Automatic annotation (TrEMBL), chain B:
<dbReference type="InterPro" id="IPR013520">
    <property type="entry name" value="Ribonucl_H"/>
</dbReference>
<dbReference type="InterPro" id="IPR036397">
    <property type="entry name" value="RNaseH_sf"/>
</dbReference>
<feature type="domain" description="Exonuclease">
    <location>
        <begin position="40"/>
        <end position="210"/>
    </location>
</feature>
<dbReference type="GO" id="GO:0008408">
    <property type="term" value="F:3'-5' exonuclease activity"/>
</dbReference>
<dbReference type="InterPro" id="IPR012337">
    <property type="entry name" value="RNaseH-like_sf"/>
</dbReference>
<dbReference type="GO" id="GO:0006260">
    <property type="term" value="P:DNA replication"/>
</dbReference>
<dbReference type="GO" id="GO:0003887">
    <property type="term" value="F:DNA-directed DNA polymerase activity"/>
</dbReference>
<keyword id="KW-0269">Exonuclease</keyword>
<keyword id="KW-0540">Nuclease</keyword>
<feature type="region of interest" description="Disordered">
    <location>
        <begin position="12"/>
        <end position="33"/>
    </location>
</feature>
<dbReference type="InterPro" id="IPR006054">
    <property type="entry name" value="DnaQ"/>
</dbReference>
<keyword id="KW-0378">Hydrolase</keyword>
<protein>
    <recommendedName>
        <fullName>DNA-directed DNA polymerase</fullName>
        <ecNumber>2.7.7.7</ecNumber>
    </recommendedName>
</protein>
<dbReference type="Pfam" id="PF00929">
    <property type="entry name" value="RNase_T"/>
</dbReference>
<dbReference type="GO" id="GO:0003677">
    <property type="term" value="F:DNA binding"/>
</dbReference>
Amino acid sequence: MPETSQLSTRPQNTRAIMVFLQAHAPFSSMDDDHLAHFAEHATLQFFADGEEVLSPSSGVINTFYVVKQGRIRGERVNDKTDSPETTFEISQGECFPVAAIIGERPTRTLHRAVGDTFCLSIDQDAFITLISESEPFRDFCLRGVSSLLDQVNQRIQTGALASMGASTSLSTPLERYTLRAPVSCAPELSVREAVGRMHASNIGSIVITDDNQTPKGIFTLRDLRTLIAQDSCSLDDPVQEVMTKAPYSLPAQEDAFAAAMLMAEHHFGHLCVTDDENRLVGVVSERDLFSLQRVDLVGLARTIGTATDLQTLVSLRTDVSRLVDAMQAHGADSGQVVKIITTLNDVTVRRVLELNIMKRDPGIPFTWLAFGSEGRQEQTLLTDQDNGILFETPDGMTEDEVREVLLPFARTVNDELAECGFTLCRGNIMAGNPKLCLSKREWDDWFIRFIDTSTPQNLVYSSIFLDMRPVFGSTGPVHDLLQKVLDRISNNALFQKMLAGNAFQRKPPLTMFRTFRYVCDGDKRSLDLKRQGLAPFVESVRVFALAHGIENANTLERIDALTKKNVFDTQDAHAWKDAYSLIQAIRMRAHQEMLKRGEELTNYIDPDDLNPLDRRILRESFRQAQRLQQKLEVTYQL
Amino acid sequence: MLKKIRQWVKRHRATSTSTTALDNMPNPKSPGEQLLSDCRLVVLDLETTGLNASKDEVIAIGAVAITGSGIRLSDQFDLILKRPELDISETVLIHGIGPEALTHGHETEEALRFLLEWMNGDPILAYNSAFDQKFLEKTLKAELGYTRHHTWIDVAELLPTLFPDSPTGGRSLDHWADFFGLEISARHHAASDAMVTAELTLIALKKAQSAKVKTLAQLHDKLRYRRRLTRIHSV
């Protein structure tokens, strides 16, 4: 390495290259001396448009390149079509070929210049020196391609964290929360003694275990308050009489997010953590998980779930938005955040239904269905209603008679949900619509017609009705219905092909020249992150999922399931999930910012408002959508 | 860079400080059958106290070398000469070299010897090379008594030869840099101007190769042919 020296004594051209490098990852986190080593050993080369830079036949790679200006395209020959397809694009400030130089092998991809392109390169010796001396550089090269995406995620989180103070991440395994030995007692201990132990250890809960240390129940200060207020038993009774039996537990390997979701869904504040043999190793409280948060998920879910009137529910919606902000700060990725929003929305929907049943019970067993993004558990703060009802026809009633009872009820619920911020569906895809308030038999008929007569309108509907999930009421009938639908689709190649053709229509917003294709919106250049960005993923993945009998409607979980079934290559799946999640993250950040400025929420953004790194990420994410569509194209011969 | 010069000075102080060392300087090469794809070319830019070669002086020398179609940053020259006695008030605003920087510059004689050795007699390219050639030859003669001629190639001539009728909007270095979307890190800094001139040269050489111009001699002929054409047209 060169001796340490001031930047100003270095030649101007070396300095200029260091300044250039500093604007890009991983160089931005490298020491000056290491950057100088790169710059002093660099060679600047020019490649004309379309010129080959590296090819599989150039032999073992011993040069490491950074694009200084222009672009490099990766080309691989598709075995099936025998024509070259672009596998990736490398733009200004990005490095190549990382995997090949690390693996000391030839590159597997033809690298070709797009437009007038300048690259800085260093030879293997300089590369090895940097790998061995610079930690950020080593991390970057060894972690490979996804590392750039990781860095963006890290940055989104640290940005939000800066205003929140340090905290733990939601992906922290639960065992980290169980450093303190759990306080437990035998079932026979009196309530008084149990509370004495809680007091001595200054904790809010005690777990009641059997001889094998298996949790049998939990007793919390909240339970004590209820106990005294209701004066229902004596403090000298055994604790097992008053404990909450069969407490929820999670294995220690699960992460904080899983714990938070479980707590939010069931509205409790404590969770047992157990080892492989189901023995108690710790207790996690909502306080542990969100110690620094002003709004907490579990508390909010509980407040929503027990609200006594509509006005309270309406006022709680602002807390949901604040919570989303806090969650992003706590390192929840966009997939987690949309699930949290969906969970809280579910709680709200359920509570609105419960309140209405309390007021005026229609007396007919039904399941409330969610479609579209709610069905996929992918709701953001901007959401409208897509719902329906599946009912059981009581003996002696016709389906139309049932509808006469249920429809007014459903319409009231639709209106009240609108007051809570779930916009009424413009296409009238709501439970109050007689066409969507159906018995099990009618739904089945409806889907048969839907699948067998694939009209253009049906294809538009496919994005809504084929992402279905029960939110309230019995889940059994919906499961049966879905199974039949999936069987029918997997046996209907024509319907699959039409679905695929429909999904293929939604092109990611990139031009031939890999720049953004804007929607016309007056003078402002804008991208529709939902319709142009996310929809290509959602729609393509749906086709594959339905064709392979996957019942889950969530896009990320569908990708996982497809990977397990070997429909998707693991690496592709990883890239697609990253790309989808990043578009979602950028969209949600934009929503939060619009909310702070008091603007109406839209899915439009102007890419010029993004920083260069996010713009690049967005472009790469859209390109991944193109790749996914290419797979659709090849699979269904579109 | 500084370290290299110090080493060089040490080596040479021991042997001689007189003009006899000039005999050991590398011979200037004439344009022959050297392949453009692997010969070494020096791209140079001078900052001077003014435009008049008979009275103005060189104050900074920046140069990079092109070898094997690449600019190697390990092979570059970036020096401010030690000329405190010179009046630079006229040009100080353009190149930003003030009196202080000049006093911290290098002994002119040493710097020029080092430059000659570093250039290794290779062909020199510059933008509007007549200007740099006049100043450099005058300075070499005055300071060292060195009178040999290098092969000079004008990049301002090379570019329109290979990219005729390009809508650059003008003939200056900035026009061509803009045309190819190049960034100049510090305009009117000798090394930085030399760098962008070298980048333009890389683009031009690539174009030359696709036009079957393979050797230095062929390139020289092509430039001469264009010069003749221009002369005919202007008559």
